[in-house]
Design goal:
Number of strands: 6
Structural class: alpha+beta
Radius of gyration: 38 Å
Strand content: 15-25%
Length: 137
């Protein structure tokens, strides 16, 4: 359900703070009633119906946001699981067909990159065509 915005209006009267005190018959006890003069705009009542409606709308919006966050988390978790199954974070071998960005350059493909401390001799070391070997100390 979409959020329905409520337009809240202030009460506007000729004398908004004026009150009429009517004696009740008991000493120093009065009934208090509004004596605001002309009421230009009655405004929205500050009552249980309006406040409960506001609470319900906030609760609905919160539930929708919570559901959307849970769905986003589930999607992210599923994507992470697929990526983790394809290539472990540590150890293991990356196997299968890979693809890189589409480009006209033949160098922009995935390569078998190896590294080690042994120096290789061009033409005699066992290194297949297309492999990259990095030497470190």
């Amino acid at each position: 359900m979409a959020f329905l915005k409520k337009e809240w209006k202030n009460r506007e009267a000729e004398y908004p703070t004026r009150r009429l005190l009517t004696p009740t018959g008991t000493a120093n006890t009065y009934d208090v009633s509004r004596a605001e003069g002309v009421v230009v705009e009655p405004g929205n009542a500050f009552d249980a119906a309006n406040m409960n409606d506001l609470e319900s709308r906030i609760e609905s919006a919160d539930a929708a946001a919570t559901a959307a966050a849970a769905e986003a988390q589930a999607t992210a978790t599923a994507a992470h699981d697929v990526a983790s199954a394809a290539m472990p974070k540590a150890g293991g071998a990356f196997t299968g067909t890979t693809s890189g960005p589409t480009t006209t350059s033949p160098a922009a493909i995935f390569r078998n990159i190896q590294m080690g401390t042994a120096d290789l001799t061009p033409g005699s070391s066992a290194l297949s065509s297309g492999q990259i070997y990095l030497v470190y100390e």
